[in-house]
Amino acid sequence: MAAKRDFRRFTRGLRFRLTASYALIFALLLIGVAALVRERLAASLDNQVHEVLNQEWAAMKGYLRIERNRRTGKVEPYWYYDREDPDESLIVRRIQRVYLATDADGNVLESSTAYQDIGVDPPSVVQERVREATPKKGSTAMASAAPETGGKVFWTEKRDPQGAPYLIRSSIVWDEGHHAPYYVAIGMALSDNRGILRDFTAPLYEMVIPAALILGSLLGWFMAGRALAPVLGVARTAQRISGSNLSLRIPTRQAGDELDYLILTFNRMIERLEASFQQMKQFSADVSHELRTPITGIRGQLEVALFTAKSTEQYREAMFNALQDIDRLSQIVRALLLLSQAESGQLVLQKSHVDLSQLVQELVEQFQIPAEAAAVQLTADLPPSCSAYVDRVQIERMLTNLLSNGIKFTPEGGSVRISLQSFPERIEMVVEDTGCGIPTEHLPHIFDRFYRVPGTGTAPSPEQGLGLGLSFVDWIVRAHRGKIHVDSTPGAGTRFTIKLPPGSASLDTVELSGQSAAL
């Protein structure tokens, strides 16, 4: 069973499949070339046989005369040649080896034994061929025909009782007075040609092609191994990569080929995985820190009340402080749950046509009281109307976070301003303040979860927030396929510029599954 599994694993390997494909293509190519060469050789041998028969037919017309016997009155074929001349005798004997002569009705005048073995042409066939080969009376061919002139040539292939093939050339010849046509056929055995083809193809298919296929397969196995060696190197390097050493990268071969492209793609994937792992570790650490603080406070309040409280008022004070910490803990859990739903695609935008000018005006009115309490001037620059296809609840959450941050971090006497502009290709919202500003080195991280600019404290007090508001702002902007940009100068203020597409009803929901809230 183990051997069977190993064999199956071997045959399913990429190297084996590449070699098998190469061997199959090579075999088909060799067989195709061999078949083409065989056909060319067969055609060449066939042309030679036709040429030989044409030459023997021409020689036959020089030696053969069909004349009437003066003694018997019968028409008979006569061969005129010098019997003392060995060359002429050889030519005539070769012609007479496969030879047939009949009259126009198919009556045999003379035939060789070999022709009798392959079968004398039936009278009906002879008569049909004589009619086809004889020029019509009154035609130009008939008027100019000479005694030695033939007619249409017929080529046929016959076999003797042993199955040996013969090629037959037949046509008509005329008697001495050009009075009547006679049917004559001569032939040649094709056994030698078939033997040549057999002798050529047998070693080709039995030795040359198998040997070439074996050598080609071995070469293909070697070349496939060399081609896959870099891939195996990539695989071995990938095996060494784990959560503890995601910083490992595979060096490229500097060849600029497909394998280098694969390596670069793999390295980019590892970079994304490293960023995701780092973000998960940071998220776990942040959550642990944020949850530990209120839990520690609750525990401390309850322990103090349990061991030191003497009066009802002291118990009430301890319970009140514990409830505040529990409320802070509930806020963190709700915020994390909402942000997790947003990132996993479970929180889907519910879009509708909203007048952003009216929405912003309502929010500004709501924030006037906390702005006046903080001695901050809150103003709005809005057009009469600005329609957009957005999720009203999420846009309210986004603007609420920005306005509350602006008021929170702007000193007394400062100002917070929100403006709205509509363009054909976008809607632009700007929230700017004259607060303390954000140092440049911290701007890339302000959308990270739980991130607080140093100097604002780390304890999760109500004034400082949870550090999740801007993460929501970033997700909401991206979920609406928009962009957010931050400009800030320490001591001068911060400016958030949000650009949203007008949107359409055809894009009624957006899911950002698997994406990070912090870019």
Protein model, in words:
- The chain is α+β, with helices and mostly antiparallel strands.
- It is 53% helix and 17% strand.
- β1 (64-68) and β2 (75-79) form a beta hairpin.
- α8 packs antiparallel against α9 (312-344) and α11 (392-408) runs antiparallel to α12.
- The chain is rod-shaped, with a radius of gyration of 52 Å.
- The relative contact order is 0.07.
The unreliable regions are 139-149, 456-464, 505-519
Shape: rod-shaped
**Separate helix tally:** 12
**What is the H/E order?**
HHEEHEEHHHEEEHHHEHEEHEEHEE
Helix content: 40-55%
Tell me the radius of gyration: 52 Å
Q: Estimate what percentage of residues fall within beta strands.
A: 15-25%
From the N-terminal CA to the C-terminal CA, the straight-line distance is 53 Å
Main β-sheet description: 5 strands, antiparallel
Class of secondary structure makeup: alpha+beta
Strand runs, count: 14
Summed over residues and divided by their number, the pLDDT gives a mean of: 80
Strand order across the largest sheet = 4-3-7-6-5
